[in-house]
Amino acid sequence: MGPFSLGLRSRVTFAFAMGGLLITILLMVITLGIAQQVLLGDRDEVAEVVVFSNAARVQRLLTGDLEADAVLGVVETVNTSVGSRPLLVIGDRNFSLDESQFSLLDVPQSLQAATGERQAARMRTQVQDEPMILYGVPIQRFEDVVYYEAVPLTEVEDTLGTLRNVLLGGGIIVAVVAAMTGRFAAGRALRPLRDVGEAAEAIAGGRLETRLDTKGDEDLSSLAASFNEMAGGLEERIQRDARFASEVSHELRSPLMTLAASVEVLENARADMPPRAQTALELLSSDIHRFQNLVEDLLEISRYDVGTADLQTDAILFAEFVRAAVDVASSSDIPVEVSPDAENVILEADKRRLARVVANLVDNAAKYGGGASRVEVSTSADTVVLAVEDNGPGVPDDERFNIFDRFSRGGAGGRRGYDTGVGLGLSLVAEHVNLHRGRVWVEDCQDGSSGARFVVQLPIAPLEGDED
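RESULT FIELD:
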């Protein structure tokens, strides 16, 4: 889709607006054409009666005396409407009430030729930049005498201009109303698609029980039913996979405990072993420990998948809890900086899950960020904020969201070493934090140095469903 492409709703709105505008323009052209024809026809009929009456009057009053004063007197006696301009042409002389307003020079040659053949004629033209109808009537008693009269069309043009403006304004209103109607209609038509999109987004977010309403529009009921069937199959598949992972993890715990106990027995006899056996025992012990952690992570993930994860909350002094959790999670001395307003904050939280959050963030910094450089505890509004900074290269912008997905280790996954994990640590952090109604994200270090800053924000208010 290009940068200037319109969405479906916008295209429907535009189509309705253009359709309304085109129909309005068509009706406006037709209306103006009919109105112009009617108004000009009425004006012509009335003016023609008056002009021929004036020509008859001139013929009756005009005698053999064609002196200028006498002729001008005859011209002055004709009954013209407001704005009309009479002109009497006798041979090469013309008599007008005001030659600057109307003279023989203003009469087109085609009209003069028609009257020269002793035929009455009329035509529309411009006289002194004013729209007029020119009439020419030969005076039959005299061979070279023609009566002309210019009848103004200003009132007709003004009426047509007013009508044109009204129709144009109406056309704009119709286009706006059509656009609003199109937008409303498109919204109604696209509402089921929005519902499908919201349902798909909800399922992608983990709410697998989301379904569409199959009642309502008969045309869309089959789509909703198919979507629900697909969602049901997906939910069943995910639950089956989650149960499988949970059962496998449970089955692995017993032999792993046996192996761990056996290794512990061997550890007691470590001093009696040769160096190569001690090295092998150390590697075996480390791998079993990693395997146990992986199984525990898988069990924890499966609890979230099947919906059995719950909170066992206690009131904790958050700053002291973080200090203790950092000491347990790391053998190195990681500074914990606590702001004064966060020193005595009491939080309702699940100690085990919150300790796991701190441990996983510190462990992630050790694996991929060169170790944690500091841990900060502060408050913001009605929340408490925990931040873990490391000495690594940071997390690229395009990985900052996906890094909390399961089995995702970002770009660091390609630099696998002995202590690298499988990508469940940060995923569990996100699950634990979400269960506390908090949120977690990663950003750059605030002091401008290289490294990543993982931030956890938790509400201070008691969680719903907590027991006293």
